[in-house]
Write a structure and sequence with these properties.
With 499 residues, the protein is mainly alpha-helical. The chain is built from 20 helices and 2 strands.
Length: 499
């Protein structure tokens, strides 16, 4: 348990050291950023051995007195382990990619400092056992993200960052108000302890109001329709590694994960039935509208941004079914999306790195000069479109089967239709960017540097082979413990506090 704080302490310490030593050694930010993220990835793989348990670390040794928590708790359970794995594997591959990609930008020292702060915040959100520290880590992540979106300091980046900050700040204010009322209702900020109190309080109007505040605030963080306005600007404008983190990790942790934790494990039966219906509605809306909006885009990264809205819709739709099979499909798709969407944003970054262009209509035939980028992009496109036997096919299949099992036959058909639309716009990407005749202006191109290729290849392998997680032995280590935590609802309190 004493290793749990290292998920936060290591990136915070590395973020502190980076601006100091980067002034005397130019290569220090690359080394420190990759060592820290590599350590975090190794630690997240190591804690897989505890995925079936619930471990609690009490900061300062302030353990519960008479069953009542009095100190800061960091909780590691099956859901946390799965999310830590997603965050830190993607984070490590992104820092490897950044070694060469970020040479186009001004100051690597500042970049890695902000990136490591963002990693510390993400891990802190996942481990937080109380609402106050969850909010603190959420704000660390958000503030670092605002700065990273604007890292290019061009007019487009600054405008996108400003919009992201305004809407993100509004979401944070709504969440903070919800936490204040939550504390007044329960007399505690510890989530497990509050869950026990809410069993007695029930679905009172005050609880409904707090639930509404949390639903709106965290839906803004997740960029669900109709709370998505910041995302189509922020993701295209950010440097490619940050686009990959925002889409592959940040919206999942600050949005989807917290919605799961609060409504399934804290509020539980007090609010869950109406919330599941809302998840179904918002998920379906995001899945369909996001897909059709992506279909009309010609900006490569903007298309990927709308695609993220659509794919997060699949996750929320599956969770809204409320069945163990639906939860399995939603969590598995969340993991698949982290792989193939991070890959696709890194592919887009490789294209921009070589061509300095995001307009797909001005490209064509790039696979002839960039075979690694083209091949890995094809794998990512097929996986996100649900083509067998790639990872995305299995998670989408489970989601459709869960919808049929729940009697939502029409919604199952809608999910299949949205997947066909997804295939249509990714075929468009392949046709306009990577296939066809090579334009004369691009005849001198060559493949991007090896570090960038390495990250894309590893993510392509993950996109291709994540279906192996459905093998019972692997499923019992990664997916089943997470599903058990979510489906267990307010049993979370018993697992954390005992009794």
């Amino acid at each position: 348990m004493s290793l749990i704080p290292l998920f936060v302490v290591v990136p915070l310490g590395a973020a502190f050291l980076t601006p100091i030593f980067s002034k005397v050694w130019k290569g220090f930010p690359d080394w420190m950023g990759n060592l820290a993220s590599g350590f975090l990835m190794g630690l997240s793989l190591w804690v897989l051995r505890f995925s079936g348990d619930t471990l609690v670390y009490y900061a300062g040794g302030w353990e519960p007195m008479d069953g009542i928590p009095v100190g800061i708790a960091m909780v590691l359970d099956g859901l946390t382990v799965m999310m830590l794995l997603i965050v830190n594997v993607v984070g490590f591959l992104v820092t490897i990619y950044s070694i060469k990609y970020m040479t186009h930008y001004t100051d690597k020292g500042k970049y890695y400092t902000l990136f490591l702060l963002m990693m510390a915040g993400l891990n802190g959100v996942l481990l937080a056992g109380d609402m106050f520290n969850l909010f603190v880590f959420l704000e660390i992540t958000a503030i670092a993200s605002y700065a990273l979106v604007a890292f290019g300091v061009e007019a487009e980046e600054l405008e996108a960052s400003f919009k992201y900050q305004v809407l993100g700040g509004a979401a944070s204010a709504i969440i903070l108000l919800g936490i204040a009322i939550f504390y007044q209702l329960t007399g505690t900020l510890n989530m497990a302890d509050a869950s026990r109190v809410l069993v007695d309080v029930g679905g009172s109007p005050a609880v409904l109001f707090v639930g509404t505040l949390f639903l709106v605030g965290f839906s803004l963080k997740a960029a669900l329709m109709p709370f998505h306005a910041w995302l189509p600007d922020a993701h295209p404008s950010a440097p490619a590694p940050i686009s990959a983190m925002l889409s592959g990790v940040v919206i999942k942790v600050l949005g989807v994960y917290v919605l799961i934790r609060i409504f399934f494990n804290v509020f539980g039966t007090a609010l869950l039935p109406p919330v599941l219906t809302i998840f179904l509605v918002l998920g379906t809306l995001s899945m369909v509208v996001g897909g059709f909006l992506a279909l009309g885009q010609k900006d490569f990264k903007r298309l990927l941004a709308y695609s993220s809205i659509s794919q997060i819709g699949y996750v929320m739709f599956a969770l809204g079914l409320g069945t163990p099979l639906g939860i399995l499909g939603g969590l598995f798709h969340l993991m698949n999306h982290a792989a193939f969407k991070s890959l696709l944003f890194l592919n887009a970054g490789a294209v921009v790195y070589n061509t300095d262009n995001r307009d797909m209509e001005k490209m064509g035939g790039l696979s002839q000069r960039m075979p690694v980028t083209g091949t890995t992009s094809l794998i990512g496109s097929l996986s996100i479109s649900g083509i067998p036997p790639l990872g995305g096919f299995w998670s989408k299949l489970i989601i459709v089967l869960a919808a049929v099992e729940s009697g939502h036959y029409i919604l199952a058909g809608v999910a299949i239709l949205a997947s066909i639309v997804t295939l249509a716009y990714y075929l468009k990407v392949q046709k306009l960017v990577f296939f066809g005749g090579l334009k004369k202006v691009y005849e001198g191109l060559k493949e991007v540097p090896v570090f960038m290729c390495f990250s894309m290849i590893v993510l392509a392998i993950l996109s291709l082979g994540l279906g192996v997680l459905l093998i019972p032995q692997l499923r019992g280590v990664v997916l089943d413990p997470a599903v058990k935590v979510v489906a267990g609802g307010i049993e979370y309190a018993k697992m954390v506090l005992g009794g």
